Amino acid sequence: MKLQHSSCQSITLACLMMWGLVLSSGCSNGSDDAPFSQGPTADFSEELTGGDGPFIGAPAPANLQELGYVEAEYTAVGTAVSYRSPNDLTGDGHWAFEPDGSAEYRTRILVRRPQNQSDFSGTVIVEWLNVSGGLDANVEWVNLEEEITRMGHIWVGVSAQLIGVEGGPVLSGGAGKPGVAGTGLKKLDPARYASLSHPGDGYSFDIFTQVARGLREGGSAMGHMRPQHLIAAGESQSAFAMVTYYNGVQPLTQAFDGFLVHSRGAGSLPMVGPGLYAFFTDSLITIPVILRTDGKAPVMNIQAENDTTGFLNSMLVRQPDSDTFRLWEIAGTSHGDSRLSVFGSGVPVNCGLPINDGPQHFVAKAALHSLDAWLRTGVAPSTAQRLDMTPSNPPSLLRNVDGIVLGGVRTPQLDVPVDVLSGVPGPTPTKAACFTLGSTAPLSEERLAELYASPEDYMQRYAASTDAVIQAGFMLEADREAIIADSDPSRIPN
Predict the structure, then answer these.
(1) 84 near 271, Cβ under 8 Å?
(2) Is residue 462 situated within a structural domain?
(3) How distant, in Å, are the alpha carbons of 96, 296, 332, 372 from that of 27?
């Protein structure tokens, strides 16, 4: 796929030098050997106040004060470049981007940080906010909140894309409040956000870079705390953006120390022209592409069961674990689930069965913990078995007699079941969202009696499975109490 934009000659040499890029014959060669490049930095000098307070697509307001955290919101202001590729994009991800046009931007960042500097871990999670629902949604915060706050990390949500600021199409549900999805921050709360301006998604990647540079300076937006490590994070549409960033932009900027890529599809977020949206659906028709193998920043890639097949089809881009890459495919989980269901329409979705109630967030927290340790110590995370596939073309997932998928990262909720947790939607999907929400199918009382001699037997096996998965590194000891609370011995016949 070739990007149809003007050549790098359309930008002046002075502008290129301002961006601090290492050029060869006028354009970067896309290698990952250069040190962290200096360049334009987002200005966070203006704190956003007034109006209705910070807006974010979330299931409930974060109880930050109780957690020893504070929240503040700032404008991120600067002039960003867009990118183009002079060559066809290839499936190995070894892309050579070069700057194209430039445009001014004025977006926002939402910062959640420890109230006391002494509690800061040194790690900052920089989340590319997800806009598939027509608004800025902090999906990774929802998955990772407990791990972020107990470790003392700083979380920064970046309004990187056009829809979040200016409004636009709603591609997958939206907020629970009517009139919110697709509206954009500026119209949602003019008293707070009217001054914002986004030039289009082609500039999103450099906006993300400039925010990272600003965070490294540790100014007032960071509570004057300077980070040791920046982790770029994104889920679903934002994971597509992480793929494009890692393959084409990170080699130019070295802006991030690690990447958490969550629920990606086989493709990447496309580059677009000024004022345009990079649609989630367009990502589905780009070439299948792995994450480049010559990058120095470690990547933790976690995938739900139904990310691997269906419309995301990430099985096409499975790649081996390496010194800088880990892939965890989480059995019994779904792209969307009960923890994230608030990002739907706010109206219960009837898919014929309850939506997936799998333990994806527990594994996601272990993935973040492992990635952070990887950056601090150099010790790589655990390697995981891939989900089992049939040899057919196209392949499908192998399942046991109860319909539970085989292989992948195993959890006690899956291997000591009272329900069949699956990425397969319920039998009567009434909305397209059902195909991302999976299902939770209760096992019959007769089947439970076959599996377990008594409630005590069930609990002993569940606890043993919990300890085994924690020992294997796929769940955390800090979450053990909550994992055990997910058990349900009342379902087991005496």
Answers:
(1) yes
(2) no
(3) 8, 21, 45, 33
Q: Is residue 55 part of a domain?
A: yes
| pLDDT averaged over 10-residue windows placed end to end, the chain, 494 residues | 30 36 35 63 97 85 87 97 96 96 98 97 98 92 96 98 92 63 93 98 98 96 96 97 98 97 96 88 85 97 96 95 98 92 56 93 98 98 97 93 98 98 90 88 98 98 98 98 98 94
8 A C-beta contact, residue 73 and residue 63: no
Residue 455, preceding peptide bond in cis (omega within 30° of 0) = no
Overall domain count for the chain: 1
d(CA 430, CA 176): 18
**Is the Cβ–Cβ distance between 437 and 334 less than 8 Å?**
yes
Q: Which long-range contacts (CB under 8 A, 24 or more apart) does 468-472 make?
A: 469/410, 469/411, 469/412, 472/382
- Measured distance between the N- and C-terminal CA atoms of the chain, rounded to whole angstroms: 61
Q: 481 Cβ partners below 8 Å, 6+ apart? A: none
> Letter for the amino acid at 484?
I
Q: For residue 74, give its domain range.
A: 8-297
Is 91 part of any domain? Answer: yes
| Spatial separation of the C-alpha atoms in residues 417 and 115, rounded to whole Å | 41
Angle at 97 between CA 92 and CA 100, to 5 degrees: 150
CB atoms within 10 A of CB 38: 11
Ordered DSSP codes for 54-107: ---B-SS---TGGGTEEEEEEEEEEEEEEEE-SS---TT-----EEEEEEEEEE
Measured CA to CA, the distance from residue 483 to residue 412 in angstroms comes to: 8
Q: Does 441 map to a domain?
A: no
**How many CA atoms lie within 13 Å of 375's alpha carbon, on the beta-carbon side?**
25
Name every residue whose Cβ is closer than 8 Å to that of residue 76 and which is 6 or more positions away in sequence.
42, 43, 44, 105, 106, 107, 108, 109, 158, 159, 207, 210, 211, 214
Element (DSSP H or E) covering residue 185:
helix 185-188
Task: Kindly report the pTM of this predicted structure.
Answer: 0.91
